[in-house]
Amino acid sequence: MNEHSFKSGAARDVNRRNVDAVIPGQRGGIRLRRITRAAVLGAGVMGAGIAAHLANVGLRVLLMDMVPKALTDEEQARGLTFEDRAVRNRLAEAGKARLLQESPSPLYTPQALDLIETGNFEDDLHRLSEVDWIIEAIVEDLGAKRALLERVEPYWREGTVVSTNTSGISIARMVEGRSPAFRRHFLGTHFFNPPRYLPLLELIPHPETDPKIVEDMRRFAEVKLGKGVVVAKDTPNFIANRIGTYGLLVTYRTMEAMGLSVEAVDAITGEAMGRPKSATFRTLDVVGLDTFLHVANNVVANVSDPDEKAAFRAPDVFRTMVERGLVGQKRGAGFYKQVRENGEKKILALDLKTLEYRPRQAFSAPSLVAGQGKDLKTRLERLLFADDVAGRFAWEVTKKTLLYAAAKVGEIADSPADIDRAMKLGFGWSLGPFELWDLLGVRRVAERMKKEGETLPDWVEALLREPEPAFYRQEGTEVVVFGRGGYAPIVLPPEALSLKRLKAAGRTIGGNRSASLVDLGDGVLALEFHSKGNALGTDIVAVANEAFRLLDDHFDGLVVGNEGKNFSAGANLMLMLMEAEDENWDEIDRLVREFQAFTLRIKYARRPVVAAPFGMTLGGGYEVAAAADRIVAAAETYMGLVETAVGLIPAGGGTKEFLLRMVERVPEGVKLDLQPLVNHAFETIAMAKVSTSGEDARRLGYLRPTDAVVPNREHLLAEAKRAVLELVRTGYTPPAPRKIPVVGEPGYATMRLGIYQLQNRRAITDHDAVIADKLAFVLAGGRVPKGTLVDEQYLLDLEREAFLSLIGMPKTRARMAHMLKTGKPLRN
């Protein structure tokens, strides 16, 4: 095996012990606060989004809003009055209905909507006594929020948590005038929009908040809601919006000083700097410039430092844009505007000097070109230390953002780690300010800052007196961070398990450039993918084979997982295409057989195997997960067998495993027509359906009832390890090979009829029909009588034969090449 070595058993800490069964509602031995019902006050974009996410994780939600002040024309035509519930609940009902129309969907599945009930502030406040958590989410106005909380308190039951969703208003001022008991149960819960997809939740206690409430809500939000929680201080705009807003305004002022365009700034401040593709001005268009000004003005109104007030005072051009309605996507125009010319969509950019739209202008610089395709450290170094316009701009923005973040440690957050975490989870930065500083070299960056006349905070100067200054340091399996009080440990919650930390502590057993084996402790081994894009290839199979050898003698079970952007988008498509173009059919046959053998080894391993997928889990990635004894999937898992999009069918056991999942739905001994179940498998695979969530994967049939969905991706590996240990504790035995009933030739004919009808209506192309026919043949079990029992190897052989036949066709290879070139499917 290339580039790998395996440590002896003596070098490993394999501490086998039994683990008690997980008690529902309990993780890490600490019981979660019991919250099963919640009320959300305010059914606007944020309120409805929060309600949707609470329903996603199984809470029953009462979504309320005001009673409308006037009847609509439609209500009058229907003869409705202000006494009718349909009128009185209209705003809440509209917020609920909007959830089904939003894209991307705020719901894990449409069925989650059934958990949301609507009401209004006049008729239903008494029902607040029935809930465990009240979330106020009305307009960002201190007076309005205080008035509503005054109305809430008479119906509040002691023990019920009350929180406000605000992006920056003072929590302490909001709760002035409420009873001491109410104040003890009150805190800020700042969800980021959209609540389902942005993981950050800032918890903001005020001086009287009960510390137990804060800790209970932190753990509940992490474990049940899947949030990355940061506890912030009750200061204007808290953490993420304080740093993020400052950074955006610094970016604009630097742009103005250097005479750069909107497009140039976005070319520099996106992925080149480790930020989202939306960069600066596309981000502002999504957020809404009016919303951004409100957030900036909140700091201006609530800080005393004149320099800080000036830093947050929005430029006149932003105010003019808001006055003209150029606020972003919600009004169709902002820094960018989409238009149609000659039937084609075009995007125009705003000239901030004239406030006129013009065609976008491409921007490039040597420092940007030098970093293309490189890792983040290389990209940043080639950009920030370059003496071209992009480099000078990026350095100035970065320098000022780092200095501001450093100045705010202790004021807005206790630890630099909290600021880093907030910026990554809330703004999508690849690195927080202090992680970035570490990556570039603390001393190197500090010396340049000083050379340019900047003054560093005292606590950063103290760090510079360390022999090897770094904000973060690994000490065994622990990571410590340097703050105002020196180094302090970053404590992981009991539900979290970090491969990065374990590997830094020397727990790697072996591996190569594409995969590693890591000792998770307690007799559990991890197989980690880390190839480019986590594409599956022979290197990964080689490490997996070593994992199975170790399982036989040294470990009790295996977790298949990683900490990349996605679990795996499938096999190495480029390799397959190259072999096909060279007509190396025997080599393709060997590669497919090898991968099929790999998934069978997972399925029939002597020890339990649990897969921990997340993000994109497509094609071969799903085939690996499907072969495991259990799947513990992240809530945000986009799972599917997508091979038909490139002219192929799943041939690593995916077609066979999906068919098995359908057949398993029929209890043994029950005679039931399998055709509808096989039709579902055919439709799902032929249409390359991908789940929109972990729960949607269960609805589609990719997950079994015994598989689990974990809300928090940071807890995924720990939960997968827990599942392995539970299988061990209950006396695991490998599954016995089974015979599979198939629908045979009659079922194949049924599916072929459907293909013919679609082809006849020109709903599919001729090559689509060829691919679908090959898939139908495999799912039917070939040319055998209905009800024939076949074994898994027989179906694997059919998969492989279909795959080899299809990859030999020029139209399939054209689809493969098009996908590799454009990232989009070709319908030829």
UniProtKB/TrEMBL annotation:
<keyword id="KW-0276">Fatty acid metabolism</keyword>
<dbReference type="GO" id="GO:0070403">
    <property type="term" value="F:NAD+ binding"/>
</dbReference>
<dbReference type="InterPro" id="IPR001753">
    <property type="entry name" value="Enoyl-CoA_hydra/iso"/>
</dbReference>
<feature type="transmembrane region" description="Helical">
    <location>
        <begin position="38"/>
        <end position="59"/>
    </location>
</feature>
<dbReference type="GO" id="GO:0003857">
    <property type="term" value="F:(3S)-3-hydroxyacyl-CoA dehydrogenase (NAD+) activity"/>
</dbReference>
<dbReference type="InterPro" id="IPR008927">
    <property type="entry name" value="6-PGluconate_DH-like_C_sf"/>
</dbReference>
<keyword id="KW-0472">Membrane</keyword>
<keyword id="KW-0560">Oxidoreductase</keyword>
<protein>
    <submittedName>
        <fullName>Enoyl-CoA hydratase/isomerase family protein</fullName>
    </submittedName>
</protein>
<keyword id="KW-0520">NAD</keyword>
<dbReference type="InterPro" id="IPR029045">
    <property type="entry name" value="ClpP/crotonase-like_dom_sf"/>
</dbReference>
<feature type="domain" description="3-hydroxyacyl-CoA dehydrogenase C-terminal">
    <location>
        <begin position="238"/>
        <end position="337"/>
    </location>
</feature>
<comment type="similarity">
    <text>Belongs to the 3-hydroxyacyl-CoA dehydrogenase family.</text>
</comment>
<feature type="domain" description="3-hydroxyacyl-CoA dehydrogenase C-terminal">
    <location>
        <begin position="407"/>
        <end position="457"/>
    </location>
</feature>
<dbReference type="InterPro" id="IPR036291">
    <property type="entry name" value="NAD(P)-bd_dom_sf"/>
</dbReference>
<dbReference type="InterPro" id="IPR006176">
    <property type="entry name" value="3-OHacyl-CoA_DH_NAD-bd"/>
</dbReference>
<keyword id="KW-1133">Transmembrane helix</keyword>
<keyword id="KW-0442">Lipid degradation</keyword>
<keyword id="KW-0443">Lipid metabolism</keyword>
<dbReference type="Pfam" id="PF02737">
    <property type="entry name" value="3HCDH_N"/>
</dbReference>
<comment type="pathway">
    <text>Lipid metabolism; fatty acid beta-oxidation.</text>
</comment>
<dbReference type="GO" id="GO:0006631">
    <property type="term" value="P:fatty acid metabolic process"/>
</dbReference>
<dbReference type="Pfam" id="PF00725">
    <property type="entry name" value="3HCDH"/>
</dbReference>
<dbReference type="GO" id="GO:0016042">
    <property type="term" value="P:lipid catabolic process"/>
</dbReference>
<dbReference type="Pfam" id="PF00378">
    <property type="entry name" value="ECH_1"/>
</dbReference>
<keyword id="KW-0812">Transmembrane</keyword>
<feature type="domain" description="3-hydroxyacyl-CoA dehydrogenase NAD binding">
    <location>
        <begin position="38"/>
        <end position="235"/>
    </location>
</feature>
<dbReference type="InterPro" id="IPR006108">
    <property type="entry name" value="3HC_DH_C"/>
</dbReference>
